[in-house]
Amino acid sequence: MSRSTANVSFYCRESKKNRDGLAPVELVIILNTRRCFIQLPRKEYPSQFKAQLRGKKRTDLIDYLDGIRVRLNEIATSFLMEGQPLTADALKAYFKTGGYVVYTIEDLFNDYMHILSKRVGKDLTQKTFRKYEIARDKFYQIISPKEPVSAITKAVILEQGVEILKKYHFKLPIIGNHKLNVYLKAIRDLCGIDKPIFSHVARHTYATRCLNRGIRLEVVAKLLGHSTTRITQHYAKLLKDNILNEVKDAFEKSH
Fold this sequence. Notes:
By secondary structure, the protein is mainly alpha-helical. 56% of the residues lie in helices and 10% in strands. The chain is built from 11 helices and 3 strands; from the N terminus they run E-E-E-H-H-H-H-H-H-H-H-H-H-H. The protein has helices at residues 46-54, 60-82, 88-97, 105-117, 126-142, 154-167, 177-191, 199-212, 217-224, 229-232, 240-254, and strands at 6-11, 23-31, 34-44. Helix 4 runs antiparallel to helix 5 (126-142).
């Protein structure tokens, strides 16, 4: 688990001085490398601001900044107690408004899709990006995009996902062998498998394993829907281990 890192700093920049030579005090929050700036209502002379920060004397400015730190700590604690995602932007929003800005499931997907959109044409095709959009839309059928991210739990997804399956049970398209084999090929390529995989492999494997576990040829023929055992003979191939075991048993019995 990665460790969260946080840092709070204060600035009063010369570049932001007004006609009177005063500049706003800025609060800078860095949380897990994410930086955000908050302009505080207080103004100071930049040179005096820096001098007070370096000095050891307790001043009104130092008390003010310490009060800001205490307030930030209280806000961060309330986030953790309420189970809200703690980010620099969330702290900024809460500090300015006095309340939570709820990070919704829709916000989560929008942020992620924005990242993916920048990869299109580089290491991501438009077709693959469209698949992500479809996955997002399907997810929205399970749980409302307006729900907070904290609402995503395994129990909720399972419960509402079952309802979605029931709703569309008789509307799901029937995938033909050709389309299924296209999907299997894509899965094979993603997994780095160098052997051919198609729908008939599962049938072939099932029949072979049945025969090698002693199930009679006639029974396997019935299971596969074959009219005669002659067709089933095609699957009657012994696994390497079975061959070795039978040869071993034969030699052991001969002694």
